[in-house]
Predict the 3D structure of the following.
Amino acid sequence: MPEKLTYKGRPVDFSRAAARFVTVRRQLPRIWGTVAVNYFKDSFRRQGWRDRTLKKWPDRKKGVKGRAILIGRGHLRNSIRIETATFRRTVVGSNLPYAAAHNEGVQATVTVRAHTRRIYGRRKEEYVTRAGHNRTRSVRYEAGSYEVRQHTRRMNLPQRRFAGNSEVMNRKLDAVTARALDVIFDI
């Protein structure tokens, strides 16, 4: 007679475990992807990349202060999402063309295409409120434009890693997988 199946010292009903395995196998890749997305987005809050230790991102040029690094309107952070999620492979990435440049850093000569640069000015404009009061406001207007010829420039973008392989993230993924096994074997 075959031996009974046990997991962590407890007997397991194989037919129930098989049914739960099918469900967990379908859900687990999305969970792995969500863990990775949250870990990568957390780099923006930490302002650095955490592998074994936290490696802070380089500061901006001297004299430039203000908001957090790599966060203007949050487009880069919000573009991080699950691209594919299968049991064999889960891919998390960004669809923005400059995401890889920030994540890996760039030191290269790039070509700037010819384009039109607009010049803006400000002028005072008077208006009347609904209550009949005269007010002035500053209005932006296009004062002119000029053509910029194609040219090359040296790009020196420091690496500010926010996505990639990390020991801490791998431990989180292992913990999620261990919890999934406990669910399969009803522990």
